[in-house]
Every structure is written in structure tokens, then in C-alpha cells.
Amino acid sequence: MPALVPFVSERETPSCRSATIPRMDEASTARFEAFSDGVFAIAATLLVLEFAVKGPSPTAPPLGNQLLHLWPSYLAYVTSFVTIGIIWMNHHHAVSLMGRTDRTMLFLNILLLLTIAFLPFPTKLVAQFLGHEGERAAALAYTATFVLMSVLYNAWWRYASTGRRLIADGVPDSSLHAISRAFNPGVPMYASVFVVAFFSPLTAVFLTFAIAAFYLPSAALFDR
Amino acid sequence: MPALVPFVSERETPSCRSATIPRMDEASTARFEAFSDGVFAIAATLLVLEFAVKGPSPTAPPLGNQLLHLWPSYLAYVTSFVTIGIIWMNHHHAVSLMGRTDRTMLFLNILLLLTIAFLPFPTKLVAQFLGHEGERAAALAYTATFVLMSVLYNAWWRYASTGRRLIADGVPDSSLHAISRAFNPGVPMYASVFVVAFFSPLTAVFLTFAIAAFYLPSAALFDR
Amino acid sequence: MPALVPFVSERETPSCRSATIPRMDEASTARFEAFSDGVFAIAATLLVLEFAVKGPSPTAPPLGNQLLHLWPSYLAYVTSFVTIGIIWMNHHHAVSLMGRTDRTMLFLNILLLLTIAFLPFPTKLVAQFLGHEGERAAALAYTATFVLMSVLYNAWWRYASTGRRLIADGVPDSSLHAISRAFNPGVPMYASVFVVAFFSPLTAVFLTFAIAAFYLPSAALFDR
Amino acid sequence: MPALVPFVSERETPSCRSATIPRMDEASTARFEAFSDGVFAIAATLLVLEFAVKGPSPTAPPLGNQLLHLWPSYLAYVTSFVTIGIIWMNHHHAVSLMGRTDRTMLFLNILLLLTIAFLPFPTKLVAQFLGHEGERAAALAYTATFVLMSVLYNAWWRYASTGRRLIADGVPDSSLHAISRAFNPGVPMYASVFVVAFFSPLTAVFLTFAIAAFYLPSAALFDR
């Protein structure tokens, strides 16, 4: 069981310290932040690869028509992009309150990122299958990814905040409670949307969009 | 309505402060800058995925010929790449003048990035369809994306600068006016090009290129 | 033979120094760290592009069935993602102990990154071919990439640490030994898995997953 | 003609200054460095997308055979990856010697990045066509990209260094001469390889690899 050691951000401290005295006692928070930054931005930008049209060829439908029929692609793109963007902002804020990290946290973070980096695939499924045979499976895969993401993200935050396990000393409890309050509705909301996907795939995708448009932004700003 | 709070860049300040005193009053400007950086670079680099040739196979046209006929791809690639590059540089400059952020700004920024990350798709449409059946729809989709981008970018800047809402204290008004002057022609120019696309898709793409080559660079440097 | 010169991190030092006195004596450690950061994050996120389904079309199998049959894709994705994530964290930690770099190190680092950036391809091979004709070749390609990666990563660390060649002055030997102990089992473990792939491709992929899940995380934290 | 203004790195300075006094006199060097970092890393990592095999299907050749016949892909991948990696390291070093930037430099830098971000496409052409009908056109496109890259990179450096136009005050001339000496052979070498591509595409690709393996690494380290 690793000791919980204080850490200082790896990227900034050298400027005010001797470069020849490495920080032996830091854990990996700064490192997993850099990893996280990259994964969030790339996952969001890869979403655009879901868009596809046929042609130009004599047998392809007119491009204008094709672009209008892509509306599930636009809907899924906006939903996933906004969700990733807001999770990223939350993630930075939460990490800024932590003063140390440990082995379990490291692993929870990698699992969370792994789920976020996976999002372009179910997003593409929704884009391709909504309105076609297979739309139920697509919507279930899409909403299941959001359930998994919210479960991991909640576990990530609870592990860090319970008993102030990884929280820096100067952080007031009210800041932690504000974040916890914002996190609490995530899992039940996405779980409900997953259930809805069994009955109406289209409604489930719209609800996922609504969460991104209305719930997440307010949650992103906590009590500030 | 969130209070407008001063912010300091999250990435740099810890080096000269205690790591155990988190900055509770910062808003998300530093965080959305990191997100923006990643999205700009990836969107620009994904543009290369639009290039495609057939073969090698007995039925494919000679590769040399194919490469010459790719000129709409080259044109669309250069236009989109230069536009993203310059918008990124402007974005950094504008953010450097801001001393705080708020909920509305956050959302405008995500919408702006969402549009920029979308650009590889209409760029690919122009590359595939220019000179073929469907070129009008491709050029309309392409120029409409630039219109949307310039509208969002103007809204983004006006929201920040009106009444110096998010501007840091030491910034002279002349700097703001220089940026506003550079921003003003964007929407009418791109809207005109969108109208041109109805009549001549090729001309519209060339005009978009001309804006990237002549208007944007001077706008990028403001009054410096 | 280049002199071993001290380096200071390029990104941080300017904040407390005059910007007009460039650091002439720095070598390229800070620069190859920035390059490394980008490559790790992008390679991990590109893994998602391996996922593919057919349809929607009348002849495609039901999407739900297709998603269940994708289990080799899920397995390969998780294995490769976790491995890249942990190697990245190790890499940052090891570099933080170095006080200088040289020409050989530079080249070893580029070769290591080249192998990591290659990983999405054998990962896709496993995803496509496991359970089909060709699964042996796919598993051999996959495990061979891990062997190459571990050989290069060991060479990278041994070159830096032997005789404290590139290690900063204040670093205690115990820290180096802890890393070396963690590195030692890598090559024999992956080489054994490569041999297993000749006899049972599926077992080899599961063993690679087990290494990512059990061996790497403990190695990632060294003696902390 | 814009005034040549001193710049300080945007990312680091705020930590030791008041956040409310923006740096009005900086030009865009820090900003184009951030853009450059992202583009280099992503272009290098996208190279892996050139690898493709057929199957699994009854009509596809055995996977093992296919992997062996991919050698042009491996060769092109290593050549392009190493070249991008080394150009990136050079780029950082050269920028670290500059104390200001201007409009022309900005544009040269975007053109250089545009060429580097383009490299995955001709790399894929070589991977697909070497040994097939069309290999001459592929090798010409590949080597032409390197010629263009070296011409732009030389122009970029000459513009900055001639008469110390953009060089910071404390930089000794010997450092500039070392870089110029390293840059000088680039254009004639790549131009010769381009000529070779007319007669022997395979030889031209091997020569491009040899330059990446032998010339670039020594050039990357200048006189250090």
C-alpha cells in the first residue's frame, strides 16, 4: 500500500527550484493530467470522422439530400463533443483540488480516459443506425457508454474526496460538497436514459443531448 | 448568474505559490484554453485524411493523373489549414487580454471549437465533389461552415469585450478596438461567399482561399 | 561524441529568467518530452479507430450480434490503451530523474515512440483476426510489437542509468534501482508471451492483457 | 512593415507577473510554437493509418504473407516518423534563439506546418504503390514533399537569422552559424533524391530513409 505523498505539479515547479534536485516524493497526478488533456482533445476531434457520404457517382443519392439525412450524425456529434468538453473542464477543476495521488486513483483515471476515448465508436453507431434497423442496439451502446463514463467518473471523485483522501489541505469542505452535489445526479440520469433506449432509441439520444446542453453546463460551474 | 471573478492561469501559477492553496476563485479560462489548443491542432492535422487515390489495381487510372486531378483536395486543404492556423493565433491573443470568464463564455467557446473540429468534413466534401455532380451542395456546406464559424467567433469576442465584460484591467481600449476592427468584416465576407456558392461553387471555394491568404493574415496581427 | 551538458526544462525556465538570454547549453530532453507527450496521447486515442461494424443494410448481421462478436476488439483496445497509459507515466517519471541528454538517447527515444505510435496497427489486426483464419499471424505481430517496445524501453533506461550517465546529481541510487527492478521482468515476460502466440493466439492476447492489468500498474509506481 | 517587437513566452511569464497586466507588445512566437507542437505530434502519429491488410475472408491472402509484403509501408513509416521527429526537435531549438517574430515569419511557419501535416498522404502513396504500377508517381510525390519541406524550412530559418532579424540579443553568432551549416545541405540533398526518383523509385525512398537515419540526427544536434 503506497504512502499518500504530497505532490507538486511537475510542469511548473522547476522554474523556481534547482533543476538538479528531482522531486522524489511526487506521485503521478501531474503526469496523468497531461495524459488526460491529450486524450480529451483527441477523442473530441476524432468524432468528426463519423461523417460519411457516398459519391460522387451516378448511383449515389444527390449530395444535398444526403447532407440533410445526416441529422443523426449532427445530433450525435454535438452531444458527444459538448459532453467531452464539459467533462474535461470538470476534470481539471477536480484535479486542482487534489494534493496527492495513489495507485488506485491512477487506475481509475486510466479507466475513465479509456471510456472517453471509446466514445467516437458508439457515436458513429448512432450516426449510422438511427432511423434504420439496428437503431436500438446503437442507442443502447451509446447510452451504456455514458452510464459507464458517469459510474467511473463518480468512483474517481468519491475515491479522491471520501475522508478527504487525496484532497489538498487548504481546500474548504464546501468546495468538495459543491462538486459532489454536481456529480450525484449523473449516474441515475444516464441510467434512466439507458432504460429509455430500450423503448425509444431516438428519445434516448435526444435526452443524452439534453443532459449535455442543460445539466452538464450548470454542473460544470459548481458553486462559483 | 455567476459572479465575474478574476482568474490566473492555472498552468503557471503553482510554481511560485504553495501547492496546498488551491485557487478557488478562478473560472475556467485556462482550462478552455488547453482544450482549445488541442482541438485546433488536431482539426488542422486531420484534414490530410481527405486525400484519397484508387489502386494499385489494373482498373485504376494512372497514379500521376490521379494526383493531378486532386487539385480540389489541395485547394481545400490549404484553405482550411491556413484558416484554422490563423484563427488559433487570434484566439490565443484575444484570450490573453481576458481577466475572467463566465458560464456564457464557456459555452460560446465550446460551440466555436465544435464548429472548427467539424471543418474536416466539409473540406472533404469539397475535395470529393468539386467538378462533379453535387459540387453546389459541397460548396454550400463548406462556406456555411465558415459563416457559422465567423458568427460564433464574433459572438465570442463581442460577449467578452462589450462593456469590457471579461477584459483584464490593464488592457487599453485601443487593443480591443483593433481586434474588433479585424473581426468586423468576417461575417459579411463569408456570408457573401456563401451566396456566391449558389451560382459558382468553384468561385466560392477560391474566394474562401483568398480570404485565408489575404484577409486573415492581416487581421491576425491587429495593430501590432 | 557530444559532451554531456546539463539541461533545464525549456518550458518552465523563462518565467524566472530574462527572455533575451537563451539557454545555449541545454540539450533536447525538454523537447523530446513534449514530442513524447503528444505521441502517447494520440496513439492511445487512435486505437478506437479499430472498431468497425457492417451496415445498416439488409445483408448485414443484426447490430446487437455484431457488437457482441467484437469482443476481441474490446480486449485488444483495453490492453493497448492501458499499456500506453502506463508506459507514458513511467516515461515521465524516468525523464524527471535525468539531468542531461545526448545524441544516442535522442535516437533511442524516437525509436521507442515510433514503436508506440505503431501499436494501433497490430491492435487492429488482433481485433479483426482473432477467432478467424490468420489469428496466429495477428497475435505474433501484436506480441512482437510489445517485445520490441520492451526491448527499446529497457535499452532507453539502461543507457540513461548505467554509470548514472544521464542522471541528475541529487537522485539517490535507490530510486534508480527501484526503476531498474521494475523494468527487468518486461523483456522476458513479453518474449514468453510471443512464444505462446505460436501455440495459442488467444492465450497470448489474454496474457498481454494480464500484464497490462497486473504487472504494469505495480511497476508504474516503483517503490513509492 | 510591422515593427519588430520583443516577445516573451506567453505560457510561462504570468507566474512571476501580475495577471492583470497583459503583455501587449508580444508577437505570436509562443502561439505558433504551441500550434507547431500539436501539428508535429499528430502528423507523426497519423502515419500509422497507412497500414492496411485485407480480410479475414476466404479470398484474402494469408495474413502472414500480407504482413511480409508490407515492407514498403514499414520503410515509409520509419522514414517519415524519424524525419518529423527530428524536424520538430530542430524547430524548438531554433525558436528558442528568437527574441521576436513578425508577419512574414508567421506565414512561413504555417506553410511549413501545412507541408508537414501533409506528409501522411505521400507516405501512404509510397506504402501502397512501391513495387506496383504507379510507383514512380508515388516516389515523386513523396520526395517532392521533402523538397518542399526543406525549401520552406530553409526559408523559415534564413528569414529569421539573416542580419539577426528575429534573433534574441544574447545569442552568439556561432550558434546561428552552426544551425545554418546544418540546414545548408538539406535542399540539395532532397532535390537530388527527387531526381533519382525518376529513374529508381525504390532507391529514392531508401535515400530518403538514409537521410533520416544519418544526416538529420547529426544536424539535429548542431555543435553541441
Question: Can you summarize this structure?
Answer:
The structure is a homotetramer of 224-residue chains. Chain A is mainly alpha-helical and 224 residues long.
Give a structural overview.
The structure is a homotetramer of 224-residue chains. Chain A has 224 residues and is mostly helical. Chain A is 67% helix and 2% strand. Chain A contains nine helices and two strands. Chain A has helices at residues 29-46, 63-69, 71-96, 103-118, 120-129, 135-161, 173-183, 186-199, 201-221, and strands at residues 5-6, 100-101. Chain A has a two-stranded antiparallel ribbon. The longest helix of chain A has 27 residues, at 135-161. The radius of gyration of chain A is 20 Å and the shape is elongated. The interface between B and D is large, with 54 and 54 residues.
Q: Could you name the key traits of this structure?
A:
homotetramer, mainly alpha, disordered N terminus
Please describe the topology of this protein.
The structure is a homotetramer of 224-residue chains.
Chain A: E1 5-6, H1 29-46, H2 63-69, H3 71-96, E2 100-101, H4 103-118, H5 120-129, H6 135-161, H7 173-183, H8 186-199, H9 201-221
Antiparallel strand pairs in A: 1-2
Helix pairs in contact in A: 1-3, 1-4, 3-5, 3-9, 4-6, 5-6, 6-8, 6-9, 8-9
Number of distinct helices of chain A: 9
Topology order of chain A in helix (H) and strand (E) letters: EHHHEHHHHHH
State mean pLDDT of chain A (0 to 100 scale).
Answer: 82
Q: Could you describe the largest sheet of chain A, including whether it forms a barrel?
A: 2 strands, antiparallel
- Largest protein interface? B-D, 54 and 54 residues
The radius of gyration of chain A is 20 Å
Q: Low-confidence parts of chain A lasting 5 or more residues at pLDDT below 50?
A: 1-28
> How many beta strands in the DSSP annotation of chain A?
2
**What is the percent of helical residues of chain A?**
55-70%
End-to-end Cα distance of chain A, whole Å, is: 36 Å
Summing up helix and strand content along with how strands pair, one would put the structural category of chain A as mainly alpha
Q: Quick one: overall form of chain A? A: elongated
- Counting copies of identical and different chains, the oligomeric state is homotetramer
Query: What proportion of the residues of chain A form beta strands (DSSP E)?
Result: under 5%
As laid out across the biggest beta sheet of chain A, the strand order is 1-2
